[in-house]
């Protein structure tokens, strides 16, 4: 199972990815998380990408492709994976095809979570995340039990720097046209499964499960 989950920032990729990896037992490879970890650990890569991340700009393809290539060579990715946040550009998509082809592999599913821009703006600017365990909340749509505190690990919630309104506008602009082109790229290959991402988390996941199981009943 070699799966890509595609969608604009805030479409629910991370939330759905958590359920997918639990049920289908494949590693979750999220380039955004990897970049944020590198930034927090102040590795050379982290220092190089910090400014892009904070402004909501895309990290250059070359760096991103190298990161994913190295990650896909890890043993746990040999029997399947869920890519989240990658590819984000056509050169990345083509590089991914190339990496898989070298191993005689190909993508099996591309799940495309479709959500309107208005809804995305509301979701992103209200999002609060736990810096310790990665859990995600929303000021009005998904409140934690205690305001500002993670339900799972009791850490103080934060707003990602790129969820601040100025950066959100840049991120949507950066990703809008590219995501549309990626959807077309995969649709032309017969891989694209379009999913209405505005419904409840559970209903979205039910549809994802059907798509992944090839069960259209
Ligand atoms: P995300 O958590 O997926 O929204 O990603 C957060 C940030 O990481 C993005 O705004 C970019 O700066 C960077 N990033 C993540 N994935 C990619 C990618 N595939 N290509 C370029 N930049 C990326």
Any overview of this molecule?
The chain has 217 residues and is of the alpha/beta class. It has one domain (2-213): P-loop containing nucleotide triphosphate hydrolases (Rossmann fold, 3-Layer(aba) Sandwich), CATH 3.40.50. It has helices at residues 13-24, 31-40, 44-55, 61-72, 90-102, 117-125, 165-188, 201-213; strands at residues 2-6, 28-30, 81-84, 109-114, 127-129, 136-138, 192-196. The strands form 2 sheets. Strands 2-3-1-4-7 form a 5-stranded parallel sheet, sandwiched between helices. A two-stranded antiparallel sheet has the order 5-6. Helix 1 (13-24) crosses helix 8, helix 2 (31-40) crosses helix 3 (44-55) and helix 4 (61-72) packs parallel to helix 5 (90-102). The longest helix has 24 residues, at 165-188. The structure holds adenosine monophosphate. Adenosine monophosphate (AMP) is lined by residues 9, 31-32, 35, 52-53, 56-59, 64, 85-86, 88, 92, 162, 171.
Could you name the CATH class? Answer: Alpha Beta
Approximate shape: globular
Q: In percent, how much strand structure appears in the residues? A: 5-15%
Which structural class matches the secondary elements? Answer: alpha/beta
What ranges have pLDDT less than 50 throughout 5 or more consecutive residues? none
Q: How are the strands of the biggest sheet laid out side by side?
A: 2-3-1-4-7
Gyration radius (Cα, Å) is: 17 Å
**CATH topology descriptor:** Rossmann fold
Question: What layout of secondary structure does this protein have?
Answer:
Elements: E1 2-6, H1 13-24, E2 28-30, H2 31-40, H3 44-55, H4 61-72, E3 81-84, H5 90-102, E4 109-114, H6 117-125, E5 127-129, E6 136-138, H7 165-188, E7 192-196, H8 201-213
Parallel strand pairs: 1-3, 1-4, 2-3, 4-7
Antiparallel strand pairs: 5-6
């Amino acid at each position: 199972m070699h799966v890509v989950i595609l969608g604009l920032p805030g479409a629910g990729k991370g939330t759905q990815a958590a359920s997918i990896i639990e049920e289908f037992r494949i590693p979750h490879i999220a380039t955004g998380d990897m970049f944020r970890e590198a930034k927090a650990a102040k590795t050379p890569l982290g220092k190089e990408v910090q400014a892009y991340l904070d402004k909501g700009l895309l990290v250059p393809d070359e760096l991103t492709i190298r990161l994913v290539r190295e990650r896909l060579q890890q043993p746990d990715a040999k029997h399947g994976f869920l890519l989240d946040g990658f590819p984000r550009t056509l050169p990345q998509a083509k590089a991914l095809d190339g990496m898989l082809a070298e191993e005689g592999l190909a993508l099996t599913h591309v799940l495309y979570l479709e959500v309107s821009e208005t809804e995305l703006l509301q979701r992103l600017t209200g999002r609060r995340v736990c810096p310790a365990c990665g859990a995600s909340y929303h000021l009005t749509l998904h409140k934690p039990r205690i305001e500002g505190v993670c339900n799972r690990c009791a850490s103080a919630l934060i707003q990602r720097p790129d969820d601040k309104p100025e950066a959100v506008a840049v991120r949507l602009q950066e990703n809008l046209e590219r995501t549309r082109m990626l959807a077309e790229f995969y649709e032309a290959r017969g891989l694209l499964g379009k999913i209405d991402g505005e419904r409840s988390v559970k209903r979205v996941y039910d549809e994802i499960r059907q798509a992944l199981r090839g069960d259209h009943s």
